[in-house]
Every structure is written in C-alpha cells, then in structure tokens.
Design brief:
By secondary structure, this protein is mainly alpha-helical. It is elongated.
Length: 63
C-alpha cells in the first residue's frame, strides 16, 4: 500500500519488520530459550495431568 501511495516500502518482510524483535529479543540466549521451552513443557504436562486426573476421578464417582 505504501508503494501504491508513492512512498517507499519496507526492505524486509512484515514478520521481520514487526515481529522479529518480539519473538527473538536481543538478550535471548540459548539457555533462556531452553528454560522457556522447559516451562512450556512442564505447564503442558501439568494441565494434561490435571485433566486426566479430573476425568478419571469423575468416571469413578459416576460408577
């Protein structure tokens, strides 16, 4: 749209221009990435474990 309006467009893509710094901040190290991934995995396991337990307890009560 900028080019059609006579202005210069961005040299990079939308993702590079707007999202790259949000997704990969400058201080993000490999260790921090692994720690964040670990947190995501642990939270995911906790939620699925809670749902499994809740479903299991609910089916025992219904029987």
């Amino acid at each position: 749209m900028r080019i059609k309006a006579g202005q210069s467009g961005y040299t990079e893509s939308f993702v590079e221009h707007y999202l790259l710094d949000i997704i990969y901040p400058s201080g993000l190290t490999r260790e921090i990435q692994f720690a964040l991934a670990g947190v995501v995995v642990i939270v995911n396991i906790a939620i699925y474990g809670w749902l499994f337990f809740r479903r299991r307890v609910g089916s025992v009560r219904d029987a």
